Request: fold
Amino acid sequence: MDIAQDILIRASRGEAQAFEEVYKATSGFVYNVALRIVNNREDALEVAQEVFLIVHDKLKTFRFESSFKTWVYRITANTAINFAKKNSRLKSVPFEESLMEPPAENEALTQMDQEYHNRLVEKLLGELNCEQRACVVLRDIQGLSYEEMAQALNININTVRSRLKRAREKLLSLKQSVDYEKVRTF
Reply:
């Protein structure tokens, strides 16, 4: 996500073509971060749209004191967390019953294997509160450092560590509780 400073400056002045370049360079990761936090594709699209409205409006205030990537992460994470808090539409389906059955060994089922893995990750993340989910996504999926996470979420680094620790403990206990023989299909 290397965007030249001159493109960011032109976009901040309202140049549509420059903003389109910013959008193209960042839209994929904005959507992915939002998806992991809100845990719903339609909601992630809505969050991403909101993020780009905010980026468009606030780009003129970006001062290049932090990286543009961190700035966009902060907007995305905060927008997704706020959205998740307002629209908590997570179903209260028992954890094990909401997973599909892992496919049998067969080369034709490789795609189903990946889909099962993705659903498992989505479901595990869905069991976390949105602050913990944001920390897991930023650290373990997007690869941010603790300092970058603290800056992106606008929280103390010790809060980042504590949320991440609690999230990982909960994920571990959930993962260990899954009896793959009893997991039912949707």
In short: Residues 5-177 form a domain with the Rna Polymerase Sigma Factor; Chain: A fold (CATH 1.10.1740.10). Helices lie at 5-12, 16-38, 41-58, 68-86, 110-126, 130-141, 146-153, 157-177.
